[in-house]
Amino acid sequence: MRQLKFYLPDEAATRELGAALAPALAPGMVVYLHGDLGAGKTALVRALLHAAGHAGHVKSPTYTLAEPYQVRLGGQAVETIHFDLYRMASPEEFLEAGFRDYFNHQTVCLVEWPEKGDKVLPPPDMHVLLQVSGQGREVELHALSDLGIQCLDRLRYPPSP
Ligand SMILES: Nc1ncnc2c1ncn2[C@@H]1O[C@H](COP(=O)(O)OP(=O)(O)O)[C@@H](O)[C@H]1O
Ligand SMILES: [Mg+2]
């Protein structure tokens, strides 16, 4: 396992991290986002998707549970799916909705509340842990697989002055 830890003093810092993560991701990656409500999981995903070329809104898929986006990551078109499993009642719901098909070598899956998908969710390449700390947020990135480690190796954050 390889890990990085940063302090994000304000929302602009969260946006910069999202922008730095976008080109570091690769097709096939599964990223779990952990943290309480308001920790900044959606804010980070939103910044990432905007940096990857998505021009429209990004709102948390609270009721649909999953929202796919066509974006560009590291120069290639990649379908990126944002999950928010907070309101998922049971793992069967995940399977019946066909969400398993979203997880493949061509896509990137970003999952809020992965705890709710226990047993049905494919394993992560990276964990993102967000926590309120003072006025800002602590963030930890834990890489668990080769894909995850390569992602952290590519990550250029904090941006050089
Ligand atoms: N680094 C930061 N410092 C302070 N506030 C932040 C930071 N990053 C995000 N925020 C704010 O925290 C809130 C996070 O909300 P949201 O992203 O919806 O959280 P979650 O998806 O984890 O429930 C937003 O109001 C956002 O403006
Ligand atoms: Mg959220």
Q: What report would you give on this structure?
A:
The chain has about 160 residues and is of the alpha/beta class. The protein has one domain (about 1-155): P-loop containing nucleotide triphosphate hydrolases (Rossmann fold, 3-Layer(aba) Sandwich), CATH 3.40.50. It is built from four helices and seven strands; from the N terminus they run βαβαββαβββα. Strands 1-7-6-2-5-4-3 form a seven-stranded mixed beta sheet. A hairpin with a 2-residue loop joins strand 3 and strand 4 (about 75-85).
In short:
The chain contains 4 helices and 7 strands; from the N terminus they run βαβαββαβββα.
Keywords:
161 residues, alpha/beta, Rossmann fold, 7-stranded mixed sheet, 4 helices, 7 strands, binds adenosine-5'-diphosphate, binds magnesium ion
